[in-house]
């Protein structure tokens, strides 16, 4: 398995309908060495898993090319292309010198300098070089270099290509209608009671009438030539697609009309033949289908709006502080260790740590939370978030492709390129749909001509109508467009769904298991109560003394006490004498006072009576808190209670899950008393305590054996096996990377209400997909029989081929437009 590779988001060019994507999947999936292939029509991408030793990628690309499509593998992540504008060059020796010196830099793969345009194209490996190093090298040679285009991601390049393609489609469409409208007027004007010059009258000048239509339809056919250049070769390869249907239908109408024109020119019943032309059907069909494809492409261009908005969050430039001076440079040139100035209202350029200043930072792009988060020196900040108030000095840590925002974008892109199991039926049908439609169209025409005694022209109309109303596009777009829009919207709300399968599974979840620590609770012990017994010392004085004792300890409870003292700005001192008693507590001498702090066994062993605290200590322990006792100079002085606090939203989230009909369970390794207390506060009535980390996955498996669809919510390393074993793993974004990798859904910033958003999003997306599939199948199931004339024997209407073409165009637009409604999902 050493040569087994998996690549996502391989660009596939040339697909026009679900028949195309289904054909690629079938052919590539049948190649020896290919373990898995999934083609996404909406994203125009492929996910491929294969054995390079058996079948090189070039062979896969060649096989796809044989099918009439183009496969473009993503560029290696390490190689980056940088374009620089260079000033100061005067001759070829200048450009040659820059090429040589930069080309010899470590990590530079290629350096090309163009003297005429005063630009340089540099290709370098990110791990070995950097844009700044390249610019500084050029500056050392006596020239000035500035970034023209920092390498756009493959996604950005594809978006630009799509934008240009959309503009070209619009131009062709406008021109096509400029010829189609006059064509329709000439062909149908007299029938509609509109005036027509005598020169073009079919009754007075049938040849001129026919020639004018030919002259008007030829430019439309030229503008729509892609239907023929793609459709007929696909038909010849025995893998017909939607373009094949249009090419055959409009081609048949054109050839028949051209033959009629020849007969008119030869004088064979010219007036009758003039009324038997279908040039306008060819032109109008091509124009209407082109309009549908344009509207579909324009709608599809909005399916990645979420990614575009996320990518736009990173500012183009950043202010770098060096020796007290401010230097503005492109964000892409920031390196780890740079000190950045972030002014109020500016977006933070990259991930880092605050070294100076305090502010409120708007992190809605990460968490979906509208309230800014208070930040101070030592706190982490993330690229793309907004500094709302004070000036900040931020030390850059992760840059470029390593930032949290870049990781989010990659995860969303991968999710948008994935498939959901619900798409399998539509994909299977799409593979055989177009050949079946062609057979059905031929059969329809023959039945009407041979059995129904219909004239040849009427039989031809039925044949064309069946071909052009069939729409495999709608079926192919029904699932991926909804997944693309839904996962993008989820990312904007702080919920990252890794793939379409996870989205579908989330809609079926009936049991939600929570880990306790760090999931339902904050995950960090905190001092909750200080109860005094005596009037000699205040609460702050007790806290200062015990925190001074514990400041050298790494125990989580000691850290909680010290942290509480620091938050109260209490001045800690070093003990004059200190002793740690394993399993009991600590003793020390501070400010001349003899202190004893720990569990009840420690104080009782020193002969200190604890009777006054019994009732209160019992109540605190019953609430799931750890109780510690403090004595000063041999007299009992106070109780300090510490607990891992429940997250504020935990109760509301559990209640919402119950309302949604989900069974809620809590697993924890804690003592049953603590576990039951936390569960009671959260509203969870099914608790399993003292569950070892390795046994959590077993508990998940046991529920699955009962037929439950289980979602596991966790955040730590010990949750990873259970997250992976569950039908749906939901990882808290505050957790370690292994938990995030194990999860199918990641909740940014660990906010529990993201669970409700994820489940509701999945349900909404799946409902949207089912609506799309219904409309996609309904258009074909109802439209094809009507186009075939099944209503005619019962007195019903026949479907004009032009109306059939309009219905076909409408089907794809309807499906994509319905998917775009998910952009307004609010969670």
TrEMBL record:
Q: Which GO terms describe its molecular function?
A: ATP binding; ATP hydrolysis activity; copper ion binding; P-type divalent copper transporter activity; P-type monovalent copper transporter activity
What EC number(s) are associated with this protein in UniProt? Answer: 7.2.2.8
Signal sequence, renumbered to the chain: none
Tell me, in one coarse class, where this protein mainly resides. Answer: membrane
Question: Known PROSITE patterns for this protein?
Answer: ATPASE_E1_E2, COF_2, HMA_1, HMA_2
Compartment(s) where it occurs, according to its Swiss-Prot or TrEMBL record: Cell membrane
Presence of the UniProt keyword Translocase in the record:
yes
What membrane topology does the UniProt entry give? Multi-pass membrane protein
* GO BP: copper ion export; copper ion homeostasis
Keywords from the named record: ATP-binding, Cell membrane, Copper, Copper transport, Ion transport, Magnesium, Membrane, Metal-binding, Nucleotide-binding, Repeat, Translocase, Transmembrane, Transmembrane helix, Transport
- Transmembrane segment boundaries: 173-194, 206-224, 245-265, 277-295, 429-451, 463-485, 773-796, 802-820
Give the CC-aspect GO terms: plasma membrane
Give the HMA domain ranges.
6-72, 80-146
Would I find Ligase among this entry's keywords?
Answer: no
Domain of life from the UniProt record:
Bacteria
- Supply the PANTHER family for this chain: ATP7, ISOFORM B, P-TYPE CU(+) TRANSPORTER
Q: Which family does it belong to?
A: Belongs to the cation transport ATPase (P-type) (TC 3.A.3) family. Type IB subfamily.
Name the NCBIfam families on file.
ATPase-IB1_Cu (TIGR01511), ATPase-IB_hvy (TIGR01525), ATPase_P-type (TIGR01494), copper ion binding protein (TIGR00003)
Listed name of the protein? P-type Cu(+) transporter
Native source species: Desulfoprunum benzoelyticum
Q: What is the lineage of its organism?
A: Bacteria, Pseudomonadati, Thermodesulfobacteriota, Desulfobulbia, Desulfobulbales
């Amino acid at each position: 398995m050493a040569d087994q590779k998996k690549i996502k988001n391989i660009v596939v060019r040339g697909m026009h309908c679900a028949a195309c994507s289904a054909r690629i999947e079938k052919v590539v999936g049948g190649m020896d060495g290919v373990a898995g292939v999934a083609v996404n029509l909406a994203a125009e991408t492929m996910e491929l898993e294969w054995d390079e030793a058996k079948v090189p990628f070039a062979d896969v690309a060649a096989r796809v090319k044989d099918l009439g499509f183009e496969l473009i593998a993503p560029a290696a992540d390490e190689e980056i292309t940088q374009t620089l504008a260079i000033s100061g060059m005067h001759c070829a020796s200048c450009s040659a010198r820059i090429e040589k010196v930069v080309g010899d830099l470590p990590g530079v793969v290629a350096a090309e300098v163009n003297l005429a345009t005063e630009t340089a194209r540099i290709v370098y490996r990110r791990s070995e070089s950097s844009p700044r190093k390249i610019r500084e090298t050029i500056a050392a040679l006596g020239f000035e270099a500035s970034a023209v285009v920092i390498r756009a991601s493959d996604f950005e390049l594809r978006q630009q290509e799509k934008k240009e393609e959309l503009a070209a489609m619009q131009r062709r469409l406008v021109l096509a209608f400029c010829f189609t409208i006059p064509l329709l007027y000439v062909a149908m004007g007299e029938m509609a009671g509109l005036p027509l010059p005598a020169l073009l009258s079919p009754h007075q000048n049938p040849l001129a009438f026919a020639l004018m239509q030919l002259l008007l339809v030829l430019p439309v056919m030229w503008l729509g030539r892609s239907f023929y250049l793609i459709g007929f070769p696909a038909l010849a390869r025995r893998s017909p697609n939607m373009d094949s249907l249009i090419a055959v239908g409009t081609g048949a109408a054109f050839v028949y009309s051209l033959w009629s024109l020849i007969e008119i020119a030869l004088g064979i019943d010219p007036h009758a033949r003039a009324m038997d032309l279908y040039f306008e059907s060819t032109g109008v069909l091509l124009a209407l289908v082109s309009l549908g494809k344009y509207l579909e492409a324009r709608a599809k261009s909005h399916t990645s709006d979420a990614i575009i908005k996320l990518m736009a969050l990173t500012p183009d430039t950043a202010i770098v502080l060096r020796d007290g001076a401010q230097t503005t440079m492109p964000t892409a040139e920031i390196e780890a260790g740079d000190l950045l100035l972030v002014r109020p209202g500016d977006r933070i350029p990259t991930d880092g740590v605050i070294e100076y200043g305090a502010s409120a930072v708007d992190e809605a792009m990460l968490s979906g939370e509208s309230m800014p988060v208070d930040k101070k020196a030592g706190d982490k900040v993330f690229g793309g978030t907004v500094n709302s108030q004070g000036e900040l000095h931020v030390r850059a840590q992760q840059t470029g492709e390593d930032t949290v925002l870049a990781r989010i974008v990659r995860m969303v892109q991968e999710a948008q390129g994935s498939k959901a199991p619900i798409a399998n039926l539509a994909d299977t049908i799409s593979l055989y749909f177009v050949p079946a439609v062609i057979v059905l169209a031929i059969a329809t025409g023959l039945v009407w001509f041979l059995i129904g005694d219909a004239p040849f022209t009427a039989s031809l109309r039925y044949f064309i109508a069946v071909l052009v109303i069939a729409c495999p596009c709608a079926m192919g777009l029904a699932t991926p467009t909804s997944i693309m829009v839904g996962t993008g919207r989820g990312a904007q709300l702080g919920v990252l769904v890794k793939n379409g399968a996870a989205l579908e599974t989330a809609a079926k979840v009936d049991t939600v298991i929570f880990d306790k620590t760090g999931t339902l609770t904050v995950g960090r012990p905190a001092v909750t109560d200080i109860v005094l017994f005596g009037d000699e010392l205040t609460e702050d004085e007790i806290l200062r003394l015990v925190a001074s004792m514990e400041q050298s300890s790494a125990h989580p409870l000691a850290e909680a006490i010290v942290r509480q003292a620091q938050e109260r700005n209490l001045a800690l001192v070093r003990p004059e004498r200190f002793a740690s008693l394993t399993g009991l507590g600590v003793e020390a001498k501070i400010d001349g006072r003899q202190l004893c702090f720990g569990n009840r066994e420690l104080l009782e062993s020193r002969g200190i009576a604890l009777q006054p605290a019994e009732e209160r200590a019992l109540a605190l322990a019953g609430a799931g808190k750890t109780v510690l006792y403090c004595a000063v100079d041999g007299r009992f002085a106070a109780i300090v209670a510490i607990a891992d606090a429940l997250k504020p939203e935990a109760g509301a989230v559990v209640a919402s899950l119950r309302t949604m009909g989900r069974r809620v369970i809590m697993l924890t390794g804690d003592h049953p008393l603590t576990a039951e207390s936390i569960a009671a506060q959260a509203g969870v009535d099914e608790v399993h305590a003292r569950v070892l980390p390795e046994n959590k996955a077993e508990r998940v498996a046991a529920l699955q054996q009962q037929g439950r669809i289980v979602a596991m919510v966790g955040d730590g390393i010990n949750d990873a096996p259970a997250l992976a074993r569950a039908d749906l793993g939901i990882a808290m974004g505050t957790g370690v990377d292994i938990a995030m990798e194990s999860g199918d859904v990641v909740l940014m910033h660990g906010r529990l209400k993201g669970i409700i958003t994820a489940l509701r999003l999945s349900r909404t997306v799946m409902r949207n997909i089912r609506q799309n599939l219904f409309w996609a199948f309904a258009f074909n199931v109802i439209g094809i029989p009507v186009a075939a004339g099944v209503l005619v024997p019962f007195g019903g209407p026949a479907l004009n081929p032009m109306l059939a073409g309009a219905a076909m165009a409408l089907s794809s637009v309807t499906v994509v437009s319905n998917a775009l409604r998910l952009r307004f999902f609010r969670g």
